[in-house]
Design goal:
The chain is an alpha+beta fold and about 260 residues long. Helix content is about 35%, strand content about 40%. It has helices spanning about 15-70, 80-90, 135-145, 205-220, and strands spanning about 1-5, 10, 75-80, 90-105, 105-120, 125-135, 155-160, 165-170, 175-185, 185-195, 200, 230-235, 240-250. The strands form 3 sheets. The chain has a 6-stranded antiparallel sheet. It has a 5-stranded antiparallel sheet with strand order 7-8-9-10-11. Strand 1 (about 1-5) and strand 2 form a beta hairpin. The radius of gyration is 35 Å and the shape is elongated. The N and C termini lie far apart (about 90 Å). The model has no long low-confidence stretch (mean pLDDT about 75).
Length: about 260
Amino acid sequence: MTARSPSGDQVTGPPGRAARTGAAGGRAPRRRRRAWLLLTAILLVALIGTAEGVARALIGGRISDRLRATVGDTRVHLGGSALVGLTRGRLGLVTVTGDQARLGRLTGASVDLRMSDVTLSGSPRVGHIRGRITVPADALAVALRSSAGSLPVSGVVTDPSSGTLVIALGQGGPGSITVRPSLRDGRVAYSLEDARILGRPAPERLTRMIEETLSKQNSRRQDPSPLGVSSLDVTSAGVVATVRADDVAFGGKDR
């Protein structure tokens, strides 16, 4: 800037002071605006995160409740955004896991299912279900012990090489029977392969009694699983049911 001396001559002063003052005054409102924008963004993210959590809990609870009648208590994991799913009325992927699930009358099973194209609105349905339900040997022993009362079941061992179950009978297992699990009209059934007492073939009378007991067990009324069990396999982990079904109603049967 310039000024005049007492003699009238122009005098040049320190440049830029006014410019710096104006620039500083302009930066302050901009900083405040940026701070407000940042705070607004943080609040929006927090609100969206809270809403997403609520939506996940709501949808997960609804799906878990509808599956409880079929496979018992499970944990539900949603793929993608629950908020978007609620808006569209449809979810692309849902994973269902649990270690106390059910397969018909068999309890204590582990479940690992993938459900895709899940409709939430109207009459809820699942487009496709794929996965496995595994019933361990201990759970099989409990089920057989309670349902086949005349057989003193003390334990079960799986034999993956032959696809059978070896059931120990009596305290200390002096007797054993070998059965083959299979699917009959969507239900789990057992057929007798062998019966032994102290390592020797069991008497025919005892074999007939075991076959009658298994027949009664197999004929007991039980609805086929709506999850669509397509096959059974005997593995070292237990009996594994492969689940494969399409267009399944939540808590209901296929169309």
